[in-house]
Design brief:
Largest sheet: 8 strands, antiparallel, barrel
Strand content: 35-45%
Distance between the termini: 18 Å
Helix content: under 10%
Number of helices: 1
Structural class: mainly beta
Number of strands: 51
Radius of gyration: 32 Å
């Protein structure tokens, strides 16, 4: 989004005078009188509302003057500066605002967003949300002699400005709704407001600049306590991994944001005890099948709590749990939507695993979930379990596994098969030892597996008890990778233990070296948030490459981007973004989470893909505006 900037001219304008030369000047220049510009507007009426503050709503277009300094042989037409002047008076007798507009490449236009128009009108003395006439004209002045100017015609805009009070919208992680507003307090220099909503992942969005604020890279979710302070980072994108987070069960809270210190904090507002009557709790996890949203099922029904004073109880019977699995709870209002590790006190045989709750010994359990409505409006949760039987060994005969990764294309959800990498089912001869084999898999990067129950939904390196010495483990992602690029046969062995546990091993055998890939028919485009109506990034400008041996050049032209707009490249090749490409242009920044352009404009990108003999692809990127 465009950032607001009002540049107030310090020029003293003497309109209508003709200056030649001055006897006191050491340098004598003969000056040609500039001709007046002709000014046009694209609309005559604008009503600014909050939802269109960042949109371009008004455009002025003016003709260039033929002015120049006659003694300057290098002076081109339009040598002087152009000022867009505005006033609430048709004769410009009152307050006047001036903004310098430099003409570049014959682009004699000035655009205004809803923020620009609102701030301009309010600074001139207009009232918010009331129609008023704002008058515009072009004043052409010399850079070398600012006392000389020639005025254009005047145009009138009927404008209803929005009351642009500095505000941070608290926006849900998917960008679909504004769940709270923090208003700037001139006395405290903080953005302040109350938060009472159920959304626990969110961003702060400045309604004036459009800047998105999220948490910093070292942010961790709070595990105890209710009063917190965290660092902010600007330049985040709606939908990325760095939204803000806090346990919504402690709401309502007061929120304060300090954009000078880049910090936010919240404090609980004392309320009455919550009534949890009717709350339904669902137990979900690796052993039970994860549910991304609230989704009671016939296999894992939700349990409605029973009430005893301020204590509420939900009992889950005959839950088959393994010591290697993990679980948590989803609940309906006013309980927290997600209750897991760090949000609930536990006792043996329930323990806190690496990421979620789990049991210390595999078996069949009765699990008792308790919630206590505290006097200050908070809710405390506790969990106990009793082992009632031993688990029987798992049947993996119907389990399908899909290998995914940078070489194959990452999939965020289970896909039974793709044309390029089909899913593989376990085979067995004794219902104890199971095998799944992937043949002719080209590997150069990290990878992992997605599986159907009762295997873990996601299988990274930590799932496997033993891993082939042909594979390493990436420290950041925790996923395996080939120690040497090549064509592989990948074998997963699984043993169904009598106690219900499953042990997995991962073997890899290199069968051939990789050769340079043929990208001749692989199209590539630029991918970013080009559609304001969609929260998803889309691909535009897909083109086929120009081929020169093993070098493939993709020229993606006429791409219009806003200042600091993030993007990458996608299409028939895997995603190419920050860290994947060598950038050879000063127009492109790598400071944020992705590639971005430093200035708004229309660009041509040249992405060069070099197919290496080891099967990898190297990328370089250039850009022109």
């Amino acid at each position: 989004m465009k950032k607001i900037g009002l540049y107030i001219s310090a020029f003293a304008l003497a309109v209508g005078s003709i200056f030649t030369s001055c006897e006191d000047d050491k340098d004598t220049l003969s000056v040609q009188v500039p001709s007046a510009s002709t000014l046009e507007q694209d609309v005559t009426s604008v009503v600014v509302t909050e939802d269109i503050l960042a949109d371009v709503l008004y455009t002025l277009k003016f003709s260039a003057s033929d002015a120049k300094l006659e003694n300057d042989g290098n002076a081109d037409l339009g040598y002087g500066a152009y000022l867009v002047e505005s006033s609430l008076s048709p004769d410009f007798s009152g307050n006047i605002k001036s903004e310098v507009v430099e003409i570049a490449n014959g682009n004699n236009t000035k655009t205004y967003t809803g923020v620009d128009l609102s701030v301009l009108a309010l600074s001139l003395g207009a009232e918010a949300e009331k129609p008023t006439s704002v008058y515009f004209r072009i004043n052409h002045v010399y850079k070398e002699n600012t006392s000389l100017g020639t005025l254009s015609n005047v145009v009138e805009l009927n404008l209803t400005p929005f009351n642009v009070i500095p505000t941070l919208n608290v926006v849900s992680k998917d960008g679909s709704q504004v769940v709270a507003k923090l208003i700037y307090n001139e006395q405290t220099k903080l953005y302040e407001g109350e938060y009472t909503y159920t959304e626990w992942n969110f961003y702060f969005v400045d309604i004036i600049t459009g800047e998105v604020y999220g948490c910093d890279d070292d942010y961790t979710k709070p595990e105890d306590g209710v009063n917190r302070s965290y660092k902010l980072v600007k330049g985040r994108s709606i939908g990325d991994d760095y939204s803000m987070w806090f346990d919504p069960s402690i709401r309502p809270v007061t929120m304060k944001v300090d954009l000078e210190k880049m910090e936010w904090n919240y404090e609980r507002i004392a309320t009455e005890k919550k009534d949890l009557t009717g709350v339904t709790v669902l137990m979900v996890g690796d052993d039970l099948g994860w549910n991304d949203g609230w989704a009671p099922s016939d296999e894992i029904p939700g349990v409605v709590v029973t009430k005893d004073g301020d204590e509420y109880t939900a009992v889950f019977e005959n839950m088959e749990l393994t010591s290697t699995g993990g679980f948590g709870f989803r609940a309906t209002e006013p309980a927290a939507a997600w209750i897991g590790k760090g949000g609930i006190s536990v006792s043996e045989p329930i323990i806190e695993g690496e990421n979620n709750l789990q049991v210390s010994e595999t078996g069949v359990y009765t699990v008792t979930f308790k919630a206590v409505a505290e006097a200050d409006g908070s809710i405390s949760y506790s969990l106990s379990a009793e082992k009632t039987g031993n688990s029987s060994k798992k049947d993996l005969s119907g389990v399908s596994i899909l290998i995914v990764g940078g070489d194959m294309g990452w999939f965020d959800s289970w896909k039974e098969s793709t044309d390029d990498v089909p899913g593989v089912k376990f085979t067995t001869t004794d219902d104890v030892n199971y095998t799944a084999v992937f043949k002719d898999i080209a590997l150069t990067q990290t990878f992992g597996f997605r599986a159907t129950a009762p295997a873990p939904t996601w299988m990274g390196a930590s799932t496997f008890t033993t891993i082939s010495d042909r594979l390493g483990v990436d420290a950041d992602s925790g996923n395996p990778y080939p120690t040497e690029s090549g064509l592989y046969t990948i074998t997963i062995n699984a043993v169904a233990e009598d106690d219900g546990n499953i042990t997995f091993s991962l073997m890899a055998e290199k069968t051939a070296d990789l050769t340079a890939q043929d990208l001749t028919n692989k199209q590539q485009g630029i991918k970013g948030a080009f559609d304001d109506n969609s929260s998803d990034w889309v691909i535009i400008g897909k083109v086929a490459p120009v081929v020169n041996d093993n070098v493939y050049t993709y020229t993606i032209a006429s791409i219009t981007l806003a200042e600091n707009q993030e993007f990458g490249f996608d299409g028939d090749l895997t995603w190419v973004g920050k860290g994947d490409v060598t950038v050879n242009s000063d127009l492109i920044s790598e400071d944020g989470n992705a590639l971005s352009v430093k200035e708004a404009g229309t660009y041509t990108f040249v992405l060069v893909a070099t197919a290496n003999n080891d099967g990898t692809i190297s990328y370089t990127l250039d850009a022109s505006k």
